[in-house]
Design goal:
Layout: E1 5-11, H1 16-19, H2 33-45, E2 51-56, H3 60-70, E3 77-79, H4 96-102, H5 104-111, H6 125-141, E4 147-152, H7 154-165, E5 182-188, E6 191-199
Parallel strand pairs: 1-4, 2-3, 2-4
Antiparallel strand pairs: 1-5, 5-6
Helix pairs in contact: 2-3, 4-5, 6-7
Length: about 210
C-alpha cells in the first residue's frame, strides 16, 4: 500500500481586506503588518518540522506567508496557481454589506452555499471544489511518505476540511479558518483524512480572523 503523505495546510496571514470584510478572490492583495507577523510566527512554529516541499498559491498574500514558512528550511516556494482562492468575479473588491445591498438574490444564493451558483465571471462551489481537491491530491501523490506544506486561502482550507471529513458542500460550517492557522491532514490514494485543525497556539489569542464567507 502506498505510504501516506502528511500535509500541513496554512491559510495566508491577515490582509487589510480581511479586516474590511472585502472579497479578495483572485485579486492580488498583500499582507498587512499583522499578516506579516502571523506569517513569521507560523514559520517559527514549523521550523523544526521535517518539511520536504512548500507549495503556494501565486497570490501575494499566500506567497509571502509561504516564504516565511520555507525560509527556515532553506527551501524555495513552489508556485501553484491552482491553489488560488475561489474566483468571485464581480463580487471581488466588494464588502459583504455591499453585496447584500446591491445583489440581494446573488447574496442569498452565496449565503446558502448553492453549489451551482457562480458570481458573474467567477466559479461555482462545484468547480472550485474539484480544482482544489484535484491539485491537492496531485501534489500529495508526488511525495509519498513526506511532509508537504500547502499555503493558500480560506476557501481552499474549507474545501480541504470538507474533503477530509466527508462534509457536503452545503453543510453549515462549524470549523475555523483563521489567518495563519496550521491544519494537518493525511493523504493516501483513498483520499484525505483529518489529523488536526486550526492550531493557532503560535498566535495571540483572538488575533487570527476567521474566513466567514467560506
Amino acid at each position: 500500500m502506498e505510504e501516506a503523505t502528511r500535509l500541513i495546510a496554512v491559510r495566508h496571514g491577515e490582509t487589510a481586506w480581511n479586516v474590511d470584510t472585502r472579497i479578495q478572490g483572485q485579486l492580488d492583495i498583500g499582507l498587512n503588518e499583522t499578516g506579516l507577523w502571523q506569517a513569521r510566527r507560523a514559520g517559527g512554529a514549523l521550523a523544526d518540522e521535517p518539511i520536504g516541499v512548500v507549495y503556494a498559491s501565486d497570490l501575494s498574500r499566500a506567497w509571502q506567508t509561504a516564504e516565511a514558512i520555507a525560509q527556515p528550511h532553506g527551501l524555495p516556494v513552489q508556485p501553484e496557481p491552482r491553489l488560488r482562492e475561489r474566483a468571485f468575479g464581480t463580487f471581488e473588491g466588494m464588502s459583504f454589506a455591499e453585496i447584500e445591498a446591491r445583489l440581494p438574490e446573488q447574496a442569498r444564493r452565496w449565503r446558502e452555499r448553492d453549489p451551482e451558483f457562480e458570481p458573474e465571471g467567477g466559479e461555482s462551489l462545484l468547480v472550485f471544489r474539484d480544482r482544489v481537491t484535484g491539485v491537492a491530491a496531485e501534489l500529495a501523490a508526488r511525495h509519498p511518505g513526506e511532509l508537504v506544506v500547502l499555503v493558500a486561502h480560506g476557501g481552499v482550507m474549507d474545501v480541504l476540511y470538507r474533503a477530509a471529513t466527508r462534509q457536503e458542500l452545503q453543510a453549515p460550517r462549524t470549523w475555523q479558518l483563521g489567518n495563519a492557522a496550521i491544519n494537518r491532514m493525511l493523504w493516501t490514494p483513498g483520499g484525505f483524512s483529518l489529523v488536526g485543525w486550526s492550531d493557532t497556539a503560535h498566535l495571540t489569542a483572538g488575533d487570527a480572523l476567521d474566513e466567514i464567507t467560506s
